[in-house]
Amino acid sequence: MKKLLILLAFFAVAFTAKSQTLILAKDAAQHVGKNVIICDSVFSTKALDKLSLINLGGTYPNELITVVVNKEDLTKFPTEPSSMYLGNNICVTGIVAEFKGKYQIVVTDPKQIVVK
Known about the structure:
alpha+beta, CATH 2.40.50.140, 3 helices
């Protein structure tokens, strides 16, 4: 029920923000290059030297899409994103890209991620 309410809320937002479309994480492949909103559970995360990874829809290597925060943008976040979002349901806004056969959204601003 909670997920349904979240989805309905973001459908309303999607109608007002025409440049963004609410999609399911499993449908990321059909939206490469497009600005979208994806809401899903954070299943796993990893902090590396040059970036932080937030996996939605499954744990690595079975994630549906990965949210990437590069090192130069980490200082914009109040704490390390990999620990900040683990175990939460989040909605991410950004452009879907393909990297080595997997799908990702690169986040440059904390406002692109909303905890639900």
